[in-house]
Design brief:
CATH topology of the largest domain: Alkaline Phosphatase, subunit A
Distance between the termini: 40 Å
CATH superfamily of the largest domain: Alkaline Phosphatase, subunit A
Helix content: 10-25%
Oligomer: single chain
Strand order of the largest sheet: 7-6-5-4-8-1-9-11-2-12
Number of strands: 29
Number of domains: 2
Radius of gyration: 24 Å
Strand content: 15-25%
CATH architecture of the largest domain: 3-Layer(aba) Sandwich
CATH class of the largest domain: Alpha Beta
Length: about 600
């Protein structure tokens, strides 16, 4: 059975008037579900889409009929909360646990990794006979065993790090092997999803579609951009913050593209007569990534206020769960794993106690009395806590969300006992966490995992020394440049889990005048050396497709250079890349190293 945190139950019992922390007795959705007829699950997660980026939620700037229809044909949760940024939310929906328990504390350079002792939703479903696939932005760990293929997913296509620098036929990976995408990325991901559904239509499947949009860079096909570029927006953010209208228009155009792709998924389910045996779930990973209409709520992405953490959440299971039902009780990303497990009539084991609870009684209407609960949001040292009616913000100001979701009036003096109880709950919750940080994270980047063929060491996970710099301050999409001296180097903290022989491929650029430079790679006593003779000096790409200025690095088409085969022994050492015997004034630019086990 799924386990619950008993100390947290005791805390709620103390603070919330004696309600026990246990699930209501539930009637099954279906009386029996035979294993071969278990419901399929399609989980759609968008990236940086706000609660207000839907026509259903009052935004007159765009039309999202396909996403809105999920609510009309299913159940919508009006008070559903995620975390303020990407990786924390993904950790919670995959594990059912608050992200601070899972090893996640950041969004790049290893801080996004879910600990390997965590049980994921995909682990559970795969064990129960589901075919599993993830297509899109993973952002929960790159190197196996953190990679999606090691976390319960049979098939993965997309990119494993955070933000990406190009959405038109970009460099991606398929089960660790580097490939080139086809067309606009969300369309490409949907194509893969449609093929997966068709392939497994006779058997239960779990399709996870974590789209990369509307996260920046703000790239979207002309078909969608032209709907917005010359239009005056009717709904805008209510605050005084400076608004970037081009950015917002691009975000709305990207959401309309997502809506088209959601429609394609539903049409495929109908075509294959799968709609009545498939749960379709839709949510976003955090608040909007610009100051735009968001239902009058305070804050955006990165904030622990309502506007930063309230997400749309719709679940459709045609003919099985109610249509058009709205649920007002608060719920969270930690509830995904237990809810979907219960709806599928599974009682899985998890390695660790979970924090979430099954929402099935609220969905099927069997919750005679739903226990009060608290939900916690945390990011960048700031913590807020949400009860059914109130939010205590990171400055311990209390707001009556039931009356005023905009968080303008501090009501601490009107209900001091509520403010005090939520402060105590916040302190107790923080005390119960054991979060990692850049200073306390001792996990190396892994290589040589026994069940994996491929492992990437991208620039984002390396450290430059000497003159070498990143192409951008944000690591996820960066590459290393400005290699001026033989004293310069790049190093990755690498633990080889199992010894073996590995083909090493370097993804590089090199000006013609610098060709012929010697390249050496070392790890402990292992060394691989070669000379790079072929120049490759492509231009930067990305700006030609941007609809608004970006903060991410522009990208290049990096060339694959086979360095040779390198024997690696088990153990932890720096994986160091050096350049010697310069033929020009610079060496190379480096995007990543790819290792392929060849034993």
């Amino acid at each position: 059975m799924i386990k619950l945190h008993s100390p947290f139950c005791a805390l709620l019992l103390l603070l919330l008037g004696g309600y026990a922390c246990k699930e209501n007795s539930e009637k099954p959705i279906l009386e029996t579900i035979e294993k071969e007829h278990r419901p399929n699950i399609v989980l759609i997660v968008t990236d940086d889409q706000g609660w207000g980026d839907l026509s259903r939620n009052g935004n007159k700037n765009l039309q999202t009929p396909n996403i809105d229809a999920l609510a009309e044909n299913g159940v919508s949760f009006e008070n559903f909360y995620v975390q303020p940024v990407c990786s924390p939310t993904r950790a919670e929906l995959l594990t059912g646990r608050y992200f601070l328990r899972t090893g996640v504390y950041g969004t790049s350079s290893g801080g996004e990794r879910i600990n390997t002792n965590e049980t994921t939703l995909a682990d559970i479903l795969k064990k129960e006979g589901y075919h599993t696939a993830a297509y899109g932005k993973w952002h929960s760990g790159m190197q196996p065993p953190y990679h999606p293929n090691s976390r319960g997913f049979d098939d993965f296509y997309g990119f494993a790090s955070g933000h990406w620098g190009n959405y038109f036929s970009p460099m991606l990976e398929h089960n660790g092997r580097i490939v080139k995408g086809k067309g606009f990325l969300p369309d490409d991901l949907t194509d893969k999803g449609l093929a997966f559904i068709a392939q497994h239509q006779e058997e239960p499947f779990f399709l996870y579609l974590p789209y990369n949009t509307p996260h920046s860079p703000m790239q979207v096909p002309d078909e969608y951009w032209n709907r917005f570029k010359d239009v005056d927006l009717q709904n805008t953010y209510h605050g005084e913050e400076e608004k970037n209208l081009h950015f917002t228009k691009a975000a709305l155009a990207m959401v309309e593209n997502i809506d088209t792709n959601v429609g394609r998924i539903i049409d495929k389910l109908k075509e294959l007569a799968l709609e009545e045996n498939t749960m379709v779930v839709f949510l976003s990973d955090n608040g909007p990534n610009s100051w735009r209409y968001n239902g009058g709520m305070r804050g955006k992405k990165g904030a622990t206020d309502e506007g930063g953490v309230r997400s749309p959440f719709f679940i459709q299971w045609k003919g099985v769960i109610p249509a058009g039902k709205s649920v007002s009780q608060i719920a969270s990303s930690i509830d995904l794993l237990p809810t979907l497990s219960k709806l599928a009539e599974l009682n899985p084991e998890t390695n660790n106690p979970i924090d979430g609870k099954s929402l099935r009684p609220l969905i099927n209407g069997t919750a005679k009395k739903w226990p009060s609960r608290l939900l916690f949001n945390h990011w960048n040292g700031k913590t807020s806590v949400r009860s059914q009616n109130y939010r205590l913000d990171h400055n311990d100001r209390l707001y009556d969300i039931f009356k005023e979701r905009s968080q303008r009036t501090d009501v601490t003096e009107l209900v001091p006992q509520m403010a005090d109880s939520l402060k105590r709950a916040k302190m107790a919750w923080l005390a119960g966490m054991d979060p990692l940080s850049p200073e306390t994270d001792t996990r190396a980047f892994t290589l040589g995992y026994a069940d994996a063929i491929y492992t990437q060491l991208p620039a984002r996970d390396g450290m430059p020394y000497g003159n070498i710099t990143r192409s951008n301050r944000w690591p996820n999409d960066s590459y290393f440049t400005n290699w001026k001296s033989e004293k310069d180097s790049i190093s990755w903290d690498v633990e080889v889990l199992e010894k073996g022989n590995f083909e090493v491929t370097l993804y590089y650029t090199c000006k013609a005048k610098n060709a012929g430079v010697g390249i050496f790679l070392t790890h402990g006593k292992s060394m691989l050396g070669t000379r790079l003779r072929e120049p490759h000096d492509p231009p930067l790409i990305g700006a030609e497709n941007d609809r608004a200025p970006r903060i991410e690095s522009y990208v290049k088409v990096f060339k694959a250079f086979p360095m040779g085969t390198m024997p690696l022994n088990k153990g932890r050492h720096p994986m160091t890349l050096k350049a010697l015997a310069f033929s020009g004034k610079e060496a190379i630019e480096v995007r990543l190293l790819q290792f392929k086990r060849v034993d």
